[in-house]
């Protein structure tokens, strides 16, 4: 049954589709800005005025959704530009919805891109104050929903943030806005290139006190279960490639839509090896994305999405 491609396709157990993919976008301030991210070949920070052309390409490829990350003009201790109704992400949402109303817009809800210290929450006595952060995250989620976001995705890993966001959305009249929770987000070295792209590296310490410890899987199931109990509509495992076992366990444990984030370091390693001629990029990318789907993910957030959409047949 493996002798020819038609036979192999007939009995194939896992099928990757363009409709499984979400493409991340980095939006920056200014005009006519298209800043290539050196550590992520082919990925750019784009100013809002350049979004329509990018969005038309993405929608034309059949990719159903994008997830937005903002690079604001100013940063402060509480990340206030993240919930300013006229800030970068809010402008981007409106531009995208005007260009391609049918394209789903997911927004990353976290303070790290907007704080002067680069951490995912407000700082008190040199540490992230979990409970004090919740109100700021809730305000950000509501501001995104008001701008037209289809889905909000809290990625901060603060305890109780899904409940806080759900209550705030409901109180503001956005009962129908779903929450995609970064429920099992590990403190991973695979995020390095992203921090270049989002300009969000912490200015002191690291994020191990609130992101998950990589050796733990039972804890991940507790985190996912808690977020579901608090009102998450979808849950995510991040990163993907080194955490396929976590994706598989989550799929077997929870009957909820499951996303996996094929993160920047995973992308950049493939790109670097391909540029050296050491691997076949197309075959490697398709094998990686298929492995994530095979592990149990329903949704794959990946910087390879545009290329994969062209390769999937």
The CATH architecture term is Alpha-Beta Barrel
* Assembly type: single chain
Query: Total number of β-strand segments?
Result: 12
Determine the CATH superfamily.
Aldolase class I
Helix- and strand-based class? alpha/beta
**Percentage of residues in strands:** 15-25%
Which CATH top level class fits?
Alpha Beta
- Please tell me what the overall shape is: globular
The CATH topology comes to TIM Barrel
Query: Roughly what percent helix?
Result: 25-40%
Q: What's the total helix number? A: 11
End-to-end separation in angstroms reads 20 Å
Q: Tell me the Rg in angstroms.
A: 19 Å
Number of domains: 1
Largest sheet: 10 strands, mixed
Mean pLDDT: 94
Verbal overview:
This protein is 39% helix and 18% strand. The protein has one domain: Alpha-Beta Barrel (TIM Barrel). By secondary structure, it is of the alpha/beta class. It is built from eleven helices and twelve strands. A hairpin with a 7-residue loop joins β2 and β3. The protein has helices at 5-10, 51-60, 88-99, 130-147, 161-171, 192-198, 218-230, 244-253, 264-275, 281-295, 305-311; strands spanning 21-28, 34-36, 44-47, 65-71, 104-109, 123-124, 127-128, 151-154, 180-185, 234-238, 258-262, 299-302.
């Amino acid at each position: 049954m493996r002798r020819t491609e038609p036979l192999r396709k007939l009995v194939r157990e896992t099928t990757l589709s363009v409709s499984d993919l979400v493409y991340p976008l980095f939006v920056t301030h200014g005009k006519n800005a298209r800043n290539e991210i050196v550590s992520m070949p082919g990925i750019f920070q784009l100013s809002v005025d350049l979004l329509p052309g990018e969005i038309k390409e993405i929608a034309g490829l059949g990719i159903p959704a994008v997830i937005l990350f903002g690079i604001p003009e100013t940063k402060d201790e509480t990340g206030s530009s993240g919930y300013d109704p006229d800030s970068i992400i809010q402008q981007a949402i409106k531009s995208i919805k005007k260009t391609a109303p049918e394209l789903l817009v997911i927004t990353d809800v976290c303070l790290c891109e907007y704080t002067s210290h680069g951490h995912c929450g407000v700082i008190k006595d040199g540490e992230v104050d979990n409970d004090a952060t919740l109100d700021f995250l809730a305000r950000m989620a509501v501001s995104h929903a008001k701008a037209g976001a289809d889905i909000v995705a809290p990625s901060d890993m603060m305890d109780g943030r899904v409940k806080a966001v759900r209550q705030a959305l409901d109180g503001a009249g956005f009962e129908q806005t779903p929450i995609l929770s970064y429920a099992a987000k590990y403190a991973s070295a695979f995020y390095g290139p992203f921090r270049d792209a989002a300009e969000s590296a912490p200015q002191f310490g690291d994020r191990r006190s609130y992101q998950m410890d990589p050796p733990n899987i039972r804890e991940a199931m507790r985190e996912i279960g808690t977020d579901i109990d608090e009102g998450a509509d979808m849950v995510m495992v991040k990163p993907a490639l080194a955490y396929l076992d976590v994706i598989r366990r989550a799929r077997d444990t929870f009957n909820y839509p499951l996303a996996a984030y094929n993160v920047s370091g995973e992308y950049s390693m493939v790109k670097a090896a391909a540029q050296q001629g050491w691997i076949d990029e197309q075959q490697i990318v398709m094998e990686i994305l298929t492995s994530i789907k095979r592990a149990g993910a329903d949704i794959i957030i990946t910087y390879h999405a545009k290329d994969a959409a062209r390769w999937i047949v």
